């Protein structure tokens, strides 16, 4: 997120992403991504409720482009990686913490 905010402040006129069309307004696109990830983090925090959940359950509770049941096994593997990244952000912000002594690791809101 910090990197995206730095990109927002750069005077870049055109960007070439890893996929898709060239980006004509890099600062605006960086801002969209910051907002998108902020919304995902807020949604994920709310999705915890009062539950203690595993990283897999974190992935299940995130909003995806289709239902969790409809996502392919390979897609779920990639989703698990993204879920872990979002979970790390929530832990870093002290919004979520690992439940001490849990195995497999469980996480809960602070």
Summed up, what is this model?
With 110 residues, the protein is mainly alpha-helical.
Strand order of the largest sheet: 1-2
| Secondary structure: helix percent | 40-55%
Give the low-confidence spans: none
Mean pLDDT: 93
Global morphology: globular
Main sheet?
2 strands, antiparallel
Q: How many distinct beta strands? A: 2
Separate helix tally:
4
Head-to-tail CA distance between termini: 22 Å
Q: What's the order of the H and E elements? A: HHHHEE
Secondary-structure content class:
mainly alpha
Approximately how much beta-strand content do the residues carry?
Answer: 5-15%
Specify the oligomeric state.
single chain
Q: Output the radius of gyration.
A: 16 Å
Commentary on this structure:
- With 110 residues, the protein is mostly helical.
- Helix content is 52%, strand content 5%.
- The protein is built from four helices and two strands, in the order ααααββ.
- The chain has a two-stranded antiparallel sheet.
- β1 (96-98) and β2 form a beta hairpin.
- α1 runs antiparallel to α2 (26-48), α2 crosses α4 (73-92) and α3 crosses α4.
- The radius of gyration is 16 Å and the shape is globular.
Write the layout of secondary structure elements.
Elements: H1 2-8, H2 26-48, H3 55-61, H4 73-92, E1 96-98, E2 107-109
Antiparallel strand pairs: 1-2
Helix pairs in contact: 1-2, 2-4, 3-4
């Amino acid at each position: 997120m910090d990197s995206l905010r730095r990109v927002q402040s750069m005077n870049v006129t055109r960007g070439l992403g890893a996929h898709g069309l060239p980006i004509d307004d890099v600062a605006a696109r960086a801002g969209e991504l910051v907002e998108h990830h902020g919304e995902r983090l807020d949604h994920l925090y709310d999705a915890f409720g009062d539950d203690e959940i595993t990283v897999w359950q974190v992935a299940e509770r995130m909003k995806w482009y289709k239902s969790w049941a409809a996502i392919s096994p390979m897609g779920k593997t990639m989703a698990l990686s993204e879920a872990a990244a979002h979970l790390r952000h929530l832990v870093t912000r002290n919004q979520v913490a690992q439940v001490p002594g849990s195995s497999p690791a469980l996480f809960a809101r602070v």
